[in-house]
Amino acid sequence: MSTTVVNGVNVQALLDAREVLKGAPEAAQFVWRASSKWQKGVHSTTTIQNFFGLGEEQTHKSESVFDADHPAVFAAEDNGITPIEYLLVGLASCLTAGVASVAQNRGIQLRSVESTVEGNHDIRGILGADSDVRNGFNDVKVTFTIDADASKEDIEALVAQSQKRSAVFDALTNPTNVTVEVA
Amino acid sequence: MSTTVVNGVNVQALLDAREVLKGAPEAAQFVWRASSKWQKGVHSTTTIQNFFGLGEEQTHKSESVFDADHPAVFAAEDNGITPIEYLLVGLASCLTAGVASVAQNRGIQLRSVESTVEGNHDIRGILGADSDVRNGFNDVKVTFTIDADASKEDIEALVAQSQKRSAVFDALTNPTNVTVEVA
């Protein structure tokens, strides 16, 4: 059935990669990289192009540059979205990619997939106004609206499987060791 | 001394906000939002413009749209960076904004702030090749190169204080509850 649906995901390549990487764990070690440069105030630009994977240097087909800043309500120039909003971009896009991949694998034709993400954030933490308030999100909610050739139950199962395999969902819901150094 | 340095951060506004929000915790409750739309394959576009804070609806001065996709090595079209790379953009920009803010507050003139971020990622997790491998990053490393009117020790203290107050550093190093629903 999966060959008759057209979601645009090459699931066979992913299934093949899974089998190959089972026997070649060193090829599965990826390093994603970003380079950031302070502009002025709290405005910075971050560039992404190269990464490492499958045992060698890789490159995206083009360089991507992202502006981050604070909005006017924080007395800044709003030259880009805030850093924490980038986490919502990553979460929404990761879960959406997962929905498309799982749908392809299960032979479900998607017509549209939309989602909204809301991150609740008590900014007293980052301002140092209350040491009992954490710096990050209090919690995050993602709501999908999906039109597909499938039952409500099958669509819910799609989303659940996407969540189970999502890199960004894991990175936000479980702790990761982050080391910060000065060169 | 802080009035003589020009890093472009309005620290007084932030210090004033801290005092005001100590007595008005409801105004400190922000909601950051993103809307995402599946395009084709694992390509999606995510839009950010509006958020809630200081008790009312707020808007960024312009709408920002972000493409996410998988690279050619995952048999995709590479129409944007991968979802997990967006976490690196958020981390670098958050820590950089913090360095600028703390420097302004401490009267340290910055000349340049650059950073590189590396996220190590064993992709056997997301591919389902090994259930003992997590989906997210194994670990992340940030390296700052800072040119400023300050000693190495003062620069290291700047970075340490930025880390201590960083929303994104907290969101990656500590767990957050994320709910995913189908409308």
UniProtKB/TrEMBL annotation, chains A, B:
SUPFAM superfamilies: OsmC-like. It holds the Pfam family OsmC. This is Putative OsmC-like protein.
